[in-house]
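Methods: example folding runs. The two proteins below were folded one after another, and each record is reproduced exactly as written to the output file, sequence line first and structure-token line second.
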Amino acid sequence: MALLSVALVAQACFAWTRPATVRRSAAAPEATLAFSYAARVPVAAARQGTTVTSPDPLLRSVVQVAAVRYDYTGRPGTVRVDAELSGSNGWHTRIPLQSNSRFEGTSFHGRVQLDRAAVSRRVAAAAAETGTPLDHVDVAVVPTIVSDDGHRFVPRLRFVLTPTQLRLAGDDAHLEFRDTSPPNSGAVPANTMTLAGRRVAWLALHGIPAGAGMGAAGVLAFVLFWRRRRTTRESEGPAYRHSAGKAARAGGSSRTAGERLRRSLSERLPVRACESAQVEESVLERD
């Protein structure tokens, strides 16, 4: 118990030496992200090679899957990637491409698979459900990057899906993006550490010593109470047995004296009964 108390105190001291919040200066590195994509195609006389790369359009008749690569530079944090589909009639949906992933350092490189066939099936199902043909669908590959200070950077690689091809949206389609939003200033609860493979905020660790200390104090109080009660019983045991024996002997003496008194009375009563009978006979004879 003493070792546990010492460990809790040491953990509390270490946790409180770390601030629960951090400040990000305005001089933090600017976030940028660059996209590129490529798809394999069969050999044909109309094109050179077997690979189509950005910014060329992807023909639906020959391209089934396109590999989209993104290169991020900025602050460490987490990233997930989705494909967002939307039509002119208000229909929209989202297809997850990459689950939320943690990265360290100031750069991260990722790649996702954009399944053109899966996108086409989702569009066809939406057209059948809404009763409106979707000849042109906006398709966006969207990485959502959240840095450790809570700042969000959400660039979008936009395509247009037509009946014949998947091409970049707009005449001046962008493949490189720069985070132009103002940085978060001031203190934010983002000071974290890695514990068992998970990010844990120091603010959460500040509350552990208090709760654990109260629990340890309760256990210690119960143990001391139990030991004191046991010691009291052991010390009072001989005195209790002596008093109980004395009371038992006193009770035995009282029972013995009562029995003697009853025997004495029972012996005297017949004698007195006989004397009374003799007196009555003498009185009758006189009369």
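Second run, written to the same file directly after the first:
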Amino acid sequence: MDIRPIHTEADYKATLQQISGLMEVDPDLGTPEGDRLDILTTLAQAYEARHFMVAARNLPDEVHRALQARATQHGRSAEAEVLAILEAAVMPASRLRMGEAMAAIGRNVGLTDKAVEALKRAQDKAPADPMRFEP
């Protein structure tokens, strides 16, 4: 079993590729392939702990392995994969982009730069009176 420490990002990516290949075989624990997968996963986790700032406590091994496999499929590190997953979750492509929506409304009603300037000049510049909630 020729297993070496992970020192560089290239070593890390190569390890992830080995892990991905072993995960496709899905070896039983205690077999040479299962032991190799276990050791490589431990090495990858140690490398990630030293190099990545995203921490997920109590992450099941299956989830961690799936994350590593997904990262390998996309050709990026586990950290980059986590960031991509988080970005897709909190900023989906289908989300409402307020600025774009307002610009579209302006275009639809034929609002021009000249009209916007006129609105700005006519705008009341006095500060608003604060709301009062007492009777």
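Comment on the second run: The mean pLDDT is 86.
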